[in-house]
Amino acid sequence: MSKAIILLGGPNNAQGELSEIVIKRCQTAFEYHLNFPELKILCTGGFGAHFNVTEQAHADYVKAYLTALGVPDTQFLPIAESRFTLEDALLTKPILQQADITEIVLITSSFHMKRAKYIFNRLCPELFLECFEAPTPVCEHELEKLSAHEVRAMQREAKNIDMLLASADNNAQ
Question: Which fold has domain 3-172?
Answer without folding.
Answer: Rossmann fold (3.40.50)
